[in-house]
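Re: duplicated header lines in exported C-alpha cells

Our pipeline writes sequence and C-alpha cells for each protein into one text file. With two proteins the header for the second block appears twice in some exports. Here is an export where it did not happen, for reference. First protein block:
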Amino acid sequence: MRISTISQPLERWQPHDRAQILATHTQKSEVELWAGVECTVNRVGNDYFDQLERNGHANRITDLDLFASLGVTAIRYPLLWERIAPASLDRADWLWADQRLQRLRDLDIDPIVGLVHHGSGPDHTSLIEPDFPEKLAEFANAVATRYPWVNHYTPINEPLTTARFSGLYGHWYPHGHDPSTFARALLNQCRAIVLSMQAIRQINPQAKLIQTEDLGKVFSTPSLTYQADFENERRWLSFDLLCGRLDRAHPLWGYLGELGISDSDLSWFLDNSCPPDVLGINHYLTSDRFLDERLDRYPAQLHGGNGRHAYADVEAVRVRADGIFGHHNLLQEVWNRYGRSMALTEVHLGCTREEQLRWLNEAWTAANRLRKSGADVRAVTAWSLLGAYDWNTLLTRSEGFYEPGVFDLRSPTPRPTALAHMLRHLANGQDYAHPILQEPGWWRRSQRLVYPSVMAMDAPSGSSQHESPPQKVSAPIVITGATGTLGRAFARLCEMRGIPYRLLTRQDMDITDSRSVTQVLADLKPWAVINTAAYVRVDDAEQHPHLCRQINADGAAILAEACAEQDISFVTFSSDLVFDGNQTEPYVESHEVAPLNVYGHSKAIAEQWVLATNPRALVIRTSAFFGPWDDHNFLTIALRTLASGQPFFAADDTVISPTYVPDLVNATLDLLIDQECGLWHLANLGAVSWAEFAQETARLAGFNPSHVEACSTRSLKLAAPRPTYTALTSERGILLPSLDRAIGHYLQACG
C-alpha cells in the first residue's frame, strides 16, 4: 500500500478544560482499582466465538460476588448486542442483563457497559455495512432506556484494533485484507460510538464515555522510520476522530481520502465530536512492534512489507535492546497529547503466576507514579478476571488454549489465584509485598531476546527499563534434593522464571535432622521450601524400610514443622503408590489410601504427618515422571533402546497417569505462589498402560511401535508389589494438559 511519510509531529492539543482537570481531579493518593471480564464475541466466517460461553460466566451469576470480594469499584461489563438482540431489538432477551446489572448494583460496583467487544454485530450487519452505526445506536438507546442509572459506557472496545484485525489482516469478519476496508471499518465504528453516546445521553445526560484502545508503539531501523512514524500516527486515529481533531491539517487526512473516505465523512466528526471522558489505554507485551528490513534475521512467518520495502514485523520485546515502551511512558505520551482523564483499562498477561503479578505491579506502580506527578490517571483495570481462551491464535481457531486470570477456571468453581490476593491488598490501600515482586519480569530480563539485539536511539526519558526496579535482595525458595530429577527441574525452571532459589544437597541440609533444618532455614530465610528429597528406589525399599521411612516420612514432617514455626510456605511430593489399585476410574484426592508396598506406605505416612503438623502445607501426589532433562526416566530409556535397534519391554496390565516434569514443576510453582494448601493431584490427563505409553511415544518419534513388546508386570520380577491401576485425576482442578500434548512437548524438547 502507499504510505504517506509524516515529516512533522502534530501540534500538541491542549483541551480547553485542562486547567480545570488539573485543579479539580481527585486528590486520592492512589488510582482506583477496576476489573473486567474477557467477553469477546468475534466472528470467523460464519462461526461466532463467544468468550462468555467458554468461560462459563454466561451461566454463573455467582461470579459477581467473587468479583466484589476483590474490592474493585467498577467493572467493564458486557451487554453485548450480538447476545441480547441477535435477530432484532423487538425480540431482545434482557433477562440475563437484568439479573447481572441488578446484582452489580446490589454489590455497589459501577458497571462500565460494553455493547460490542471485538465483534461485528449480529449476522444481519457488519463493521462495513453503512447502517451499522445507526443500528448500534438503536441498541444503545434501548440499553439506556432499560437501565437509566448506568452512567459509564464503552459502546465499542478498541475500534482501531478491531478494524485492523477485521479489515487489514483478515483475521475476523468481514476478513478484509486492504487499507480501504480497514478505513471503512474504523470510521463506521467511531461513527457508531458517537451516535450511541448521543442516543444514550438523550436518556441519561450524565453518561460518560470510557473509550478503550490498544496503543502499541512501533519502532524500526533507520530506513523504516517513515513506516514506524506512519503506524505511530495511525494508532491515534480513533481518539483523534472522537475528539474532533482529524481536520485537513491532520497528517492522515490525505491518507484516508486516498482510501475512499470522503471529506464529508471526515468532517462529520468535526461537527459531532464526542471526546472520551476517560481515555482507556490497553497495553500488552505483544503491542509494541519493531520493523526491520534485514529479513535473514527472522523466520519467514514474520516477513511482510508495504510495497516499498520488505521487512519483518517483530515483537519489540524480543529484539529491541530498550525493550517495551512500558505503561509509564505510554500513559505519559497520552497525557501529553490529549490532557484528558486516563485509565489503564486492560492489564493482563498470559504467563506464569509470578509474571502476571509483576506485570500488574508494574502497571499499578506506573499509574500511581504518574498520578502523583499531576497526570489525571483514574484507574488500573485487572483484566481477564476469568482468564481467556485461544488468544494465542488471535481467536481465529478454537483449540481450548486457556490462560488463567484473577480466577482459574480449571477447578470445579473459579479458584482465586495470587492475583486475587494482590488485588484485595491494593483495593484496601495496602502494599502486596510478595518476594517475587522484587525480581524483574521476563520482559526486562536478557532471556526475552530471541533475535539479535538492536540498540535503538529512540529510548524515551525515564526509560521503561527502570519502571519497577528491585528494592532489595530477594528471599529465595529452598529446594531440597539437588541430585534428583525433580530437584534439578525445579532449579532449572526457577531460573527460567526469574525466581531466586537455593538448591541444597543432603550435605547442605539433612532433612532428617531437625537441628540442621532449623539452622539452615534461619540462615537462608526463604519464603518457601520445596522438598524433592526422597528415597525413590521402590524395589530396594522392601529391603530398607527404615531408611525409606526416615527420608520420606520423618524428613518431610521435620521440614513441615520447621516451616510452620518460621512461617515459611512448604511443598512436598507424594505418589500414586499410596493407592491399592482396586479402582477402575482415576483416583481423586479424597479417595482412601491403602498402599501395597513400603515406598507407598512411607508416602502415605508422610502425607498424614505433614498435614497434621502444618495444615498450610501443599502436598502434591503425582506419578510416573518423564521429561527431557534426565537420562533415566522410563520414556527416555524406551526411546534409547528402540534407537539402538533393540526391543523394549513394558507392562500392559498396569495403568498409570504419566506426568511430564516441566508441566508438574510449573503447576506446582503456580500453586505455591497462589498459597494453595492440602492435597493436590497433578498428572497429565490420561490413563494408559506402560506399554501403551511407550508405543504411542515411539510412533510419534518415528519408531515402529510394534518394537515395544507388551508383557505382564509379574514377568518383570519386581521386588515390590505394584497396584494394577493408579491413574490420577483431581477434584480440585485439572491443571496439567492432556498426555498427548505432554508427549508432544517432550519430543519437541528432546528433538
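Second protein block, exported in the same file:
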Amino acid sequence: MESLLEQSRKLVVAGTLLTTLLLTACGGGGGGGDSSPSQAAAVTPVPTPATLTGVFISEVGNNAYYNTAAWFEIYNKTGHAIDLASYSVRTRAINPDNGTPAAPAIETFALPHLTIPDQGRVVVASKVDPTLVNNSNVTYISDASGYVPSWSTAAGFVELLANGKTTDFVRFGSESTAPISSGMWIGANVPAFAKTSDVNGINTLSSSIVRLDSNFTQTHTSTDWTAVNFSTPGGPNDVGPGVVDSDADGIPDSAKVAGGTYSGIDLYSMGARPGQRDLFIQVDYMNSTDPGITPQQQALQNVVAAFRAHNIAVHFDAGNLFAAAFDPVNFNLSGAVSNKRALVPCTTVYSTSQCTDVNTIKSAAFDYRRKAMFRYLLMANSQNLDGSYSSSGVAELLGPDLVVTLGGWNLNTNNAANTNMLVNYQAATIMHELGHTLGLQHGGDESTNYKPNYYSVMNYMYQLYGLPKDPTGADQATNSNGLSEVNERYYLYSLSLQSNPPAQFVPGINNTAYYPAVMHDGPATTTFKMDYSDGTGALLDENLLNESLVIGRGAGANAYGDWDLNGHNTTGTYRFHIVDEGMDTSFTQMHDYNDWANLVLAINKYGVAHFNGASIKSASSALPSTPYDPVFNTRRPLAREDAPPALLIKHLRALNP
C-alpha cells in the first residue's frame, strides 16, 4: 500500500521531470514554437456545432500521477465509420514504473485497428498495467519499450494525426509544444488542471477538459474547451462545469432530474432522485445449474430494503433475468440484454493464478460509460482452481468490483427452509462484499473480526447467521432452547472453530440447539436480519468482561453474553479472551463502529479524498489513500475472506443430500 509520502514524491518527481522537459524541449519532433496570433489567417470560419464534421479530440482527463493511465477521448463526427488505425497520437511519453521520460520526450504512438461508428467515441489510455483489457470502448497503448502517453496537471498536449498531418490538437497549462500542422492551435492555452486536492481535501482527480456536446466547436483555441469536475469518458460530454454532488454519492445533481444525463446515461429513468443517495450495481452471473450462483430476486430485494431504511436507493441491474424489458422495479436497467456469462470453475479479483480475473469478464460485458457510477457484482462459482466450494466472496476495498462465490455450497430450493437459506446467504454475502467496496472492513474501521459488539453483517459472527433481532438478550426466556439469539450466534461461531468438538461444546447445551436450520431468526427463516451497524454498541473489554451487559446495547432481565462458554451467567467481571480470528494473546478493547455514517458511495478517482467533484475525506484513517481511478487504474486493496467453516458445509450437505 503506497503511503502519502510516496504519492507526494511521485508528484514531485513527475513535476520536476516535466519542468525540465519544458525548459529543454524545442518542439520535440514538431517544432517547439509558441502559439502566435499570426496563425489566425490559416483558420477557416467556425461551423456551427450541428454541422461540424471530422474526427476530434473531445475530452482529456486530469492526470496527476505518472503511474496512472493518462487518457483522452476521440469522437467520430464524419458521417461514416472510421478505422482508428488510420490515426496516430503525438504527446509526451514516460516510463510508468519510475516517471522517466522517453528519449525523445515527445513520441508519436500508433493506434490499433478498431472500428468507430459515426457518432461513436473511443477512449485512448496509457497501458500502465498489463491487466488492462481493450474492448470496443477503450484501447490501451504503449510503445515497444513500455513507455506510455502522459501529462501532468501543470502542462501537456494531445495531438491527433492522420497521414502525418494534424487532425486535432489541444494544449494546456504551461506546455509550449506546437502542432505539426500550422494553424491548428491559436492563442492562449487551456488553463492547467487543478491540483490533486485543495486545502479542504476537495478532490479534482475526476476532472477533465471537454468539448461540451451542447456547444461543440473547433476554433483551434482554448475557447473550444471547458473544464468540468465530472469527466465522461466514452460518452457524451453532457455534464457542465461546477456541477454539485450534494449527497456525495458520486452522481452529479444534474443527472438526478428528468431530462438530465450522465455520460449519456439516463439515471433518472433508472430511479435516481434528488435528495436520496443512489447506488448502482450491475449484476452478472455465470451460466450454471447451481442455485447458489444464479441471483435470487428476493435476495436482491432484501439488500435494497436494508439500504432504503437509510435513504440509500440501491439499483441493481440483472439484465433480463427477472424482466424481459427495461423495468427498474424488477432489476432490469438494460432492456433485452442478458447478464449471463460463461461458467468458469475459478474466478477472483487480481488473479495471480490460473483463475479467471473478474476484470476479464467485466471488460467484455460492461458499458464503459457506467464505470463512473456503477459497481460490478459477479455471481461466480468458486475461488479455488478445482472449482470446489470456497469462501463466499472477495471484493476490493473502496473499489468497484465484488465477486460472490457460493457454488458448491449445496444451496437449493427443495423446500421453504432451504429456499430461505439460499436467499439469505446470497443477500448477506452481497451486502457484506458490497460493504467492502463502500469502505468497511471486518471490524468496521479495522480488520479485527468476530467482535460480538460489532453489530454488522460485515462481522463473520453475523454475516451468514443473521443479526440477533434483540441485541439485549431479552428474548432468552422466550426462545424454545432457552438461549438468547446473541448466544446462539456466539456459540455457533465458536463451535465452528473446533476440529473435533464434543456433542455439548457448551456444558449442558446440545450443539444441535443452535444449528443454522433451527437458529431463531436465522438463515432458514424469513425473519433473518442483516444490517450495517450504527455504532451505538458499548466497548467490550477483554480485561473487564461483564456478561450482564451482553453486547453493550442494553440488557434484558436475566440476559447475559456467555463469553467464557460455560453455559451460565458468570457474575462480576473477569479477564478472558473472546474467540477471534487470530487467536491473539493480547487482551483488547473491542469497539463498535458506525458503518452507515462512514459509507463511501462514490467510486470515482481520488488521491487523498474519495469522492468525485466536491467531496470529503473518509472518516476512517485506516482506509487506504493511494491514487485510484475506476476507469483505468482499477487496482485496489482486496478484502479477502476466510473459507466457510467445515462444520457449516457439512451441516448444509446433511440437510440437503
